[in-house]
């Protein structure tokens, strides 16, 4: 009975509000000035507030946006049904679902490969090598930053940041100042490194899949990305002590097939690029084909496991290597589907919620209004600079998806500029990127929001310098 009363109450609220809807020239209802529109904005705002408070509430970020997406589309569906235009809303919904499906499958394959590399102990081996070399704090600061910059274009900025943070936490000991500065450096480097590669960040992947920038056309962003990282890193390095940390050397043996999986990942990337560049198909087709490479290799590893173990056991016995025999006892066969299950599902579901929420707000007419203001009344360059600043506050995924949904008429220089600013703008605040949020959890209490905020002016200097370098070096791409 209570449910029925609540339903009647909600319908009573919605019924008068829908009367404010007006018809736009495209056939869609303009609900920007209606109570319906304001209600959907409020719902999205509340959901995103909960996302930003994830660290404090311990509430996974996917939950509020999934709920908000469902409510927003339920409201839109009701209003469009009342106007006899439910087919328009359905078509818009299916368009957004297709956009998400392509990105979901692409990211799922990439995350599966990264999980497979982690399971085969590639990242553990890299970590052990770094901690066992006896580097001082300043060298570790630069080494973790440079590695983050060059690994993130392949492995994505979130995975890279967590890997480098694990190294910092292992060698830093009781030196919270170094941990804070090193984590800030890693976040900046990972975000900057991901800005010039379609595989480095979700925003660059979105721009590539949308067809606005081809794979090779991202390369002009390399030097601006380098400047974005190097400028704040040089200044912060002055505050790093020259002393050496206390480290314990640990030998890590790669599991069978580790290097070959790296080769298969490179082949998968090449396949995705070929599908997009040669056949003009969505790159996700090539990525799914690459998943088949990994599946067949996993089958090969399982079928040859007994023979491999017998061979290694014979060699260990012949060499009287007891440690090698003990290691053989912990060998397990490779399982692709277990690697799929280890993907970042919270991130993937969060992305679904964002895509659907922003798609709903676009159907209501709000993105058209924003596009009219930012990309018609403003200079596109200033609009794209603002996109980067908004990315630090809101998160770059919804901001970039909103820009792509608006589809402003921009030249190649401006498309590269918005790709750069959305990618590196999140470094301005710790909550501005997935890498920053993840590191606040991994280095809890040592890398904090306010610890990052103190260095925001220095990071902002790098942000401004990277934009200036892009406009200077790639000025011919601006019409």
Automatic annotation (TrEMBL):
Keywords: Antiport, Ion transport, Membrane, Signal, Sodium, Sodium transport, Transmembrane, Transmembrane helix, Transport
Listed GO CC annotations: membrane
Subcellular location, record wording: Membrane
Domain of life: Bacteria
The keyword Plastid belongs to this UniProt entry's keyword annotation: no
Annotated transmembrane regions: 35-53, 65-80, 221-240, 261-278, 284-301, 348-369, 381-404, 416-443, 455-473
InterPro entries: Cit_transptr-like_dom, NhaD-like
Keyword Aminoacyl-tRNA synthetase: no
Topological relation to the membrane, as annotated: Multi-pass membrane protein
Any GO BP: sodium ion transport
Coiled-coil residue spans: none
Citrate transporter-like domain span: 49-423
GO molecular function: antiporter activity
Signal peptide: 1-21
Family membership: Belongs to the NhaD Na(+)/H(+) (TC 2.A.62) antiporter family.
UniProt name for this protein: Sodium:proton antiporter NhaD
Organism: Vibrio paucivorans
């Amino acid at each position: 009975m209570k449910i029925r009363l609540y339903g009647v109450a909600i319908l009573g609220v919605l019924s008068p509000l829908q009367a404010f809807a007006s018809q736009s020239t495209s056939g869609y209802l303009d609900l920007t000035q209606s109570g319906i529109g304001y209600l959907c904005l409020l719902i999205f705002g509340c959901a995103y507030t909960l996302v930003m408070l994830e660290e404090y509430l311990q509430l996974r970020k996917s939950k509020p946006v999934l709920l908000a997406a469902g409510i927003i589309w339920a409201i839109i569906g009701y209003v469009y049904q009342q106007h006899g235009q439910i087919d328009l809303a359905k078509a818009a919904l299916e368009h957004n679902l297709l956009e998400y499906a392509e990105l979901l499958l692409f990211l799922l394959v990439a995350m599966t490969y990264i999980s497979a590399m982690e399971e085969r102990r590639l990242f553990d081996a890299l970590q052990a090598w770094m901690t066992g070399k006896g580097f001082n704090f300043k060298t570790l600061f630069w080494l973790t930053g440079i590695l983050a910059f060059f690994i993130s274009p392949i492995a994505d900025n979130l995975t890279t940041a967590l890997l480098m943070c694990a190294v910092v936490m292992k060698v830093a000991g009781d030196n919270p100042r170094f941990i804070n500065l090193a984590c800030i450096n890693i976040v900046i480097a990972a975000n900057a490194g991901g800005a010039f590669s379609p595989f480095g960040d979700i925003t660059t992947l979105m721009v590539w899949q949308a067809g606005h920038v081809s794979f090779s056309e991202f390369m002009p962003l390399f030097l601006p990305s380098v400047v974005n990282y190097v400028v704040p890193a040089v200044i912060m390095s002055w505050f790093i002590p020259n002393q050496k940390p206390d480290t314990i050397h640990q030998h890590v043996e790669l599991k069978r097939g580790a290097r070959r999986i790296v080769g298969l990942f490179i082949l998968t990337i090449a396949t995705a690029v070929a599908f997009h560049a040669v056949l003009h198909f969505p790159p996700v087709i090539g990525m799914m084909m690459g998943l088949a490479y990994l599946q067949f290799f996993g089958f090969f590893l399982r079928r040859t496991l007994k023979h491999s173990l017998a061979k290694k056991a014979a060699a260990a016995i012949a060499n009287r290597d007891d440690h090698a025999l003990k290691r053989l006892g912990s060998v397990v066969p490779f399982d692709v589907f277990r690697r799929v299950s280890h993907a970042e599902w919270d991130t993937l579901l969060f992305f679904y919620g964002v895509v659907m929420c922003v798609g709903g707000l676009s159907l209501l007419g709000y993105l058209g209004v924003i596009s009219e203001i930012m990309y018609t009344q403003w200079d596109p360059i200033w609009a794209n600079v603002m996109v980067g600043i908004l990315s630090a506050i809101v998160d770059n995924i919804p901001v970039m998806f909103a820009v792509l949904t608006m589809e402003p008429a921009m030249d190649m220089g401006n498309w590269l500029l918005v790709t750069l600013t959305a990618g590196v703008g999140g470094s301005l605040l710790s909550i501005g990127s997935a890498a920053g949020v993840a590191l606040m959890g991994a280095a809890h209490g040592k890398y904090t929001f306010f610890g990052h905020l103190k260095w925001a002016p220095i990071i902002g200097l790098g942000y401004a310098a990277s934009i200036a370098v892009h406009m200077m070096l790639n000025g011919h791409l601006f019409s």
